[in-house]
Amino acid sequence: MSTPVLEARDVSMVFGGLKALKGVTLTLDEGKIVGLIGPNGAGKTTFFNCLTGLYTPTTGQVLLKGNVLPGDPAQVTDAGVARTFQNIRLFPSMTVLENVMVGRHVRMKQGPLASLFHGPAYHRGEKAARDRSRELLAFVGLNNLDDELSRNLPYGDQRRLEIARALATDPAVLLLDEPTAGMNPQETEATQQLIFRIRETGVSVVVIEHDIKFIFGLCDSVSVLVQGELLVEGSPEVVRADPRVVEAYLGKPPEEVEHEIEAAKGEQA
Amino acid sequence: MSTSTVSTPAATAPVEKRSALAPLGKPFAVAGGVLGIVAALLPWVTFSLNDGNWPDKSTLQFFDAPFAVTGFRWHVLLLGVLVLVAAFAPVPSRGRVVRALGWGLTIVSFVNAAYITVKGGGLAAITALDGATAFGSVVGLIAGVLAILAGYGIGIEPVGEWKFKVSTPVAYLVLLVSFGAVLYAVAAMLTTGGVGASNPYAGAIFLSFLGFAGGVLGALSGVGFVRWLSALSEQHRVFSVIVLAACALLLPFTDAGNEYWMTVAANIGIYAATAIGLNIVVGLAGLLDLGYVAFMGIGALVAANFSGAATAHFGITLPFPVAAVVAAIVAGIFGAIVGSPTLRVRGDYLAIVTLAFGEIFTRSAQNNIGGITNGSNAIPGIPPLSLFGAEFNKSISIGAVKLPAGVLYYVLIVLLVAATMAVFANLKFSRIGRAWIAIREDEDAARAMGIRTGKMKILAFLIGATLAGLAGAVFAHKNGTVSYESFKFLESVTLLAAVILGGMGSIPGAVLGAALLFVLPEKLRDFEDYRLMIFGLALILIMRFRPVGLIPDAHRRAEMIERADENAEEAHVEAKKA
Questions:
Q1: Among A269, B93, B203, B564, which has the highest number of CB atoms less than 10 A from its own CB?
Q2: Which residues does chain B have within 8 Å of residue A112's beta carbon, measured at their own beta carbons?
Q3: For the structural domain made of A6-80+171-268, what CATH number should be given?
Q4: Residue among B473, B495, B465, B492 nearest B299 (CA)
Q5: CB-nearest partner of A74 from B451, B565, B566
Q6: Which of B395, B47, B439 is nearest to B280 (CA)?
Q7: B525-554 residues touching A, CB cutoff 8 A
Q8: Residues facing residue B45 across a β-bridge
Q9: What is the pLDDT of residues B377-425, one digit of tens each?
């Protein structure tokens, strides 16, 4: 492969005296799904915020297709990195369609003058944005809900809407922050299928998740973050077999946890 | 989906209350309606009051023609009939309709009763005296309360939703008739009770009319008509705007066509235009601005100094259109300057920053800092506008029709309001408008969607301030004097109240809010000392019972907008072919 689509080189983040990230490196090749796991407080979300421009790393850099990402979320999105949030953050009193159309913001040409005087170009642009948004809504499986206020959607649909909104920015990389939090097994399964389909469209994906089973079934490669450091990186098989991961992630495994892991293995197999 | 509703038993308390009243719903409604009609046909006052007879021949001695009902008695009669109609006709969400009508009855009866009692020096004025009875207001009150209770008994269901579509000509007709009715209501509202102090009962007549109008509007809204109409006007936006503007331009030909009301209406228009500008900042972008009137002040000052007034400072006189544009631009620049700190501050802190800016403006203007405001001497003698030799503050006649003085200002201001509305509406349904709303809803998520929030916020301030500056320029010429006194904190707060009262993000809301806030003081001269207190009380009540505002931003139906877009697209393609 040539240059990876997203690359974090030696990213460290220091808040006052707290070292939240210590030289984390992550490589995402085009068309791959990378999982990021780790116990609570391991620095996953901090790392995510470094990738999305919300934080500027204290040292190290983040590159998108070989270019250093700007330190501003809006510009990062413009460059081609889209994200969803751990606790859903839609625009609650906008409709489903409008939410996705906000995602088209960076890809629309419409300036202040066109917005002020609705000429033919405005109408063409709006129609194109609407069509693309509808397409994406159909892609994530939210048909015929255009005029519904997003806050009225059921939880699972809100998650999918957030993904559609992120996809509307035409990203090269999609960052999903706990996409299956609070979902039942069927919804989790559907989300997995959705992420596979997203990969098929040529978008590379980074996923943070607590559900190990979900991550191992989904990702091409998994990185384990513990106390701000990258503990292990590799294919799901490698990571799963690593005793350090089990220990760091779950502590000394009591009987039940072992059973659970066995069960997870069984399902994977 | 039809209008049928599934009544879901909500919390336990209301259900119990409803079940107690439920069997009484219909009987109460019928009784309320009948009593309302009876009340209209009864005398309301037992003796002649000191300030003259109570209007509409409702005083006992003059009660010679009980069936010739006029004024408030006509309103009571109409409300009574409507309650009866609602009780029997198959109307959607009947409970809401009956309740709203009941409130109308109650308010009309209460306002009249209270005034009569106060002016008549005691309860004797409204009830029995020496064997003569005048129970009109008592019966009216009972009717109102019964109807309200009936509303709860029938059950407060969700507002009816009308899904049926109408063909374009029918839609046009509906819109024409509806806006015509609005014009009539506005003219009636302005003129009821006459001008200021000419009628001692002006305040009562006005408030009573407000109660009636509110009741009917509440019923229409409850039945789903208002929602349907707003969706319809959204669908035929261009037509609606044209009809609305035409209606507004017809106002001088109604009873309200005299100099006094032209002036009041023009002032309302100026504040309405400013309120719409503020609505961009507060309603769309969600940035609380407590010093907004300063931009209007800046516009007014700039225009005043270019106007050729004797005390103007710039030494050059610009024609009004040029001066107005310059005023708008200068105000816009200040808007952008004030907007810049908003990159760093949010919410409450932003409100403080804008508050401080407003204060800086007022104090600088008061002390003539910069030397262009004349401080407390103000800039008087700003010449009125004129067009083709017709001075805007003189009366004009078109053919045989003589129009009152100030009518040209009124027309100019209607056009200004229409232009402001167009700017607001177009921006709202655009990439920029969506970005503003996204920022209002969740700023971090908006940034994650690629919206340059800083740029967008400054743009909101800039455009809002530009509109205010434009309104200020008209204000300067209309009033002839520009003084810092007109642009103090209270005005900013009143404008903000107008926006919030009317409904944030809604254009008709902003206009209605501005109209109410600037007409009410005119109409409530009776109260003088209590005016602001009543005003405050009314605000509290409205915010408690209708926090979304009087005319909330009707959520647009995307499909309708889309149809408009496609039509425009087709028209464009066809135009190219031709």
A1: B93
A2: 432, 459
A3: 3.40.50.300
A4: B473
A5: B451
A6: B439
A7: none
A8: B59
A9: 888 888 887 777 677 767 777 766 777 777 888 889 989 998 998 899 8
